[in-house]
Amino acid sequence: MHTTTIETLLDEMTVEEQVSLLAGEDFWSLPPIPRLGIGKLRVTDGPNGARGGGGLVDNVPAAAFPVGIALGASWNPALTEEVGAALAQEVRSKGAHVLLAPTVNIHRSVANGRNFECYSEDPELTAALLVGYIRGLQGAGVGATIKHFAGNESEIQRTTMSSEVDERSLREIYLRPFEDAVKKAGSWAVMSSYNRLNGTYTSEHPWLLTDVLRGDWGFDGVVMSDWFGSHSTSETVNAGLDIEMPGPTRDRGDKLVAAVAAGEVSPETLRARAGNVLRLMARCGALHDTDPHEEVANDLPAHRALIRRAGAEGTVLLKNTGVLPLGKPAAKIAVIGPNAREARIMGGGSAQITPHYIVSPWDGLAARLGAESLAYAPGCTNHRWEPLAKADITVDFFANSNLEGEPVHSETMRESQAFWVPPIAGGKVDPQDFSARLAWTFTPERTGRHRFGIHSAGYSRLFVDGRLVADAHDSWTAGRTFFEEGCDEVVGEIDLEAGRSYTVSVEFVARKSEMLAFSAFRAGIGRPLGDAEIAAAAEIARNAETALLFVGRSGEWDTEGSDLQNMRLPGRQDDLIAAVAAANPRTVVVLQTGGPVEMPWLESAAAVLQAWYPGQECGNAIADVLFGDAEPGGRLPQSFPVRWEDNPTQSQDPEVYPGLDGKVRYEEGVFIGYRHYEAKGIEPLFPFGHGLGYTSFALSDMDLIPTPDGAAIDVTLENTGARRGSSVVQLYVGDRHASVPRPARELRDFAKETLEPGEQRRLRFDLPARAFAFYDTDAKQWRVEAGEFEVSAGFSATDIRCSVTATQTDALLPR
Ligand code: BGC
Predict the structure, then answer these.
(1) Tens digit of pLDDT for each residue in 150-181?
(2) Is residue 440 situated within a structural domain?
(3) Residue nearest (by alpha carbon) to ligand 1 atom 5
(4) Which of these, 128, 2, 28, 30, lies nearest to 72 by C-alpha position?
(5) Is residue 370 part of a domain?
(6) Is the Cβ atom of 485 under 6 angstroms away from ligand 1?
(7) CB of 195 closer than 6 A to ligand 1?
(8) Using an 8 Å Cβ cutoff, are 261 and 270 in contact?
């Protein structure tokens, strides 16, 4: 439809104009070409909301949806499609055309800081969910940008690390979601990753961006770099990278014009790249969008309801001795834990948004039962950094790095953190050469020891009443914060008096960075909690009918830019759970994390519910599940190992994880997640696919019907319990005699079904030949080997209820 227009426009464009479309003008948009009436393409971050322009904090409010792993746990592509469609409205409300989402890297290690943002350890589950998400988004005219292509399964030195992955593991596991994004969902854009793949930056990887993506899969959209992830001129353009982001350009513009003049980039290649960008613009309505950029906050009732429902649908009931669902309480309920009054709605990094509002577990329970029915104790803390201060904070900017002279710009902030991207201070300072002084008043509620923490991408110092308390200036060294551009938190302690006002001030000086061009800091104030707080929590639990414990992590831990260093609950949460469970046998542990944790207290807990980061309706969604208004609809999208040492990348060899000398070697090949636990004979704490409901199900009468292209499977699902409920039937295939090492069982299809008590349903699954194939690296095709395959149906990777044998003949299938 748009082909003629695009070809005509390309004919009319000068080389300079074509080049101009191949790099950002600023952080979030491309330059328009007014002479030809070409508008401005705008993108915004996702995947759990549309943040809009600006930095990472303090944006125009947006709807906060469940994070990737929570949607992964829903096992419901129809739900991700609804979420995608709602996100399209959000993207439009932020004046943008393209969402930088979904994130579909695979949970290789339990440690990856970004697992919360990705769906699963399994490529088929990931693929099915992203197809829904992209259809929802693009069906409403907003472009998806599937990311990060490829091999970005860790945040350690991610901008330089080379992921060393063999082709079979790439094709079967890591590229698999991208393949369906292109072939089934028709994704309009792809984002290359930061890392190198087998030695070459993915942004200049011809095999990845051209041979596989466009050649094998037929992609006709745009490939853009991750932010500052493009490092060359002709190499990236020739390899297939259409857009360098963000702007202003570092390697294109005049450099690319010169490369074309020198014959390093052909006019045909340039035209093809510019044509791809125009095609994307036509698809998402940006081609003639010359409207001024406007961002609005649309807090829609329909989005609120969808987020609440989606949140409940992703919660996974890991254990239940019968205490859940809760009935109408006859006595007080104890609400305990560091996540009880803090709404943990999302992870950290570029997926952060400013939500319209947040509902904490306490808020959700109080709305349902009345605050007078609840008793509260925090018990302990679980933060990584001291809590943010909320105050009227004055900021004075100086156009030098010494805080000298008169400020050139002043503003106020409401939280003790900033993430500055150009233009900074209304454009009055050089982003690489400025300083700022911030100040606010702090009045402690309690007398005693207080902790002041600061960390920054840039140099910073924190003072209390003029006295230096925390210094991240003179001794600044790179740490695991702010995308590895910041230092680790520096904490100082000081005794303060309740009711007295103190002036807290922060001095910030920008630091020149080779990689990412931004400045940021985060300061916080906390109070150490100890044994007395745990004892107080146990005491209120002892006197309550039921103890609800809200524990876990937060976006400080589950975040882009740093991996986890262990699988334990942070702080003293294990001690707190043990003490509360000892005081009250009806203790329900509600976990909020972006992945598994060790559970030394599991035996003593009456129930454990994994609620992830479910978005702005957090507390309402959790309360709906606890009281049975909604069922815990989730099933684990990632295996939960007993111990950190059990996880697939926990080899003794640091090159396997976290990487050594710039390389991380995917030694385990295709044996990740449940494929690994099965092969190594390690029993997980909770297997992939596990999750309880409030009713029970049975599977029976499995039949196989050979088809010209594989097999069809029929199986009967029955709700054998007394409540309406849903179940996820999982279909696994295993090759009994393969010539290459193959997992015993691999997920090939699934269905989420809701049944009335006693209801039976006959389900049909179609397994094409590809469901039986492995990638043959010699033949460079998918190969089915003649012989017997076990096809099994069950409720988790280890809870298999029926199996049949499928006999296949030899076949080679195209890439
Ligand atoms: C992330 C991307 C994100 C981009 C823009 C990068 O740090 O890896 O996922 O879309 O920033 O914020």
Answers:
(1) 999 999 999 999 999 999 999 999 999 999 99
(2) yes
(3) 227
(4) 128
(5) no
(6) no
(7) no
(8) no
- Looking at residue 2, its pLDDT comes to 61
Kindly give the number of the ligand 1 atom that is closest to the alpha carbon of 100: 10
For atom 6 of ligand 1, the residue with the nearest CA is 227
**Quick check: is 684 in a domain?**
no
Give dist(CA 601, CA 512) in Å, integer.
Answer: 47
In angstroms, the CA 518 to CA 55 distance is 9
Closest ligand 1 atom to the C-alpha of 561?
7
Give, for ligand 1, the residue of 48, 148, 227, 244 to mutate: max count of ligand atoms closer than 8 Å to Cβ. 227
Backbone φ and ψ for 241, nearest 5 degrees, come out as -85, 115
Say how far apart CA 169 and CA 140 lie, in whole Å: 34
Helix (H) or strand (E) holding 78: helix 77-93
Ligand 1 centroid distance, CA of 351 (Å): 8
pLDDT at 351: 97
Which string of DSSP letters, residue by residue, matches 211-262?
IIIIIIT---SEEE--TT----SHHHHHHT--BB-SSSPSSSTHHHHHHHHT
Would the pTM of this model clear 0.90, i.e. be above it?
yes
Say what the pLDDT of residue 73 is.
98
Q: Is the CB of 227 under 6 A from ligand 1?
A: yes
Residues assigned a catalytic role:
226
Instruction: Decide: 163 in ligand 1 pocket, CB within 6 A.
Output: no
Q: What is the CATH number of the domain that holds 789?
A: 2.60.40.10
Torsion angle of C-alpha atoms 314, 315, 318, 322, degrees rounded to 10: -130
Containing structural domain, residue 431? 390-526
- CA distance linking residue 517 with residue 521, whole number of Å: 14
Question: What's the whole-number average pLDDT of the chain?
Answer: 96
| Reported confidence tier of residue 516, pLDDT bands at 50, 70, 90 | low
Give the per-residue pLDDT at 1.
Answer: 44
Q: Which of 42, 103, 244, 350 to mutate to test the pocket of ligand 1 (most atoms within 8 A of CB)?
A: 350
Q: Residue 101 CA: which ligand 1 atom is closest?
A: 10
Instruction: Please count the structural domains in the chain.
Output: 2
End residue of a domain, out of 526, 556, 591? 526
147 lines ligand 1 (CB under 6 A): yes
State pLDDT tens for residues 9-26: 999 999 999 999 999 999
CATH code of the domain in which 463 resides: 2.60.120.260
**84-135 per-position pLDDT tens digit:** 999 999 999 999 999 999 999 999 999 999 999 999 999 999 999 999 999 9
Helix (H, G, I), strand (E, B) or coil at 750: strand
Q: What percent of the chain has pLDDT over 70?
A: 99
Residue 428 lies in a domain: yes
**Residue reference for tokens 């409920």:** 725
Starting at the earlier edge strand, list the strands of the sheet with 811-813. Answer: 774-776, 781-784, 811-813
Instruction: Identify the domain boundary among 505, 526, 547.
Output: 526
CA of 286 to the centre of ligand 1 (A): 21
Task: State the DSSP string of 416-449.
Answer: SEEEE-SSPGGGTSBTTB-EEEEEEEE--SSSEE
Pocket test for ligand 1, best of 28, 51, 194, 226 (most atoms within 8 A of CB): 226
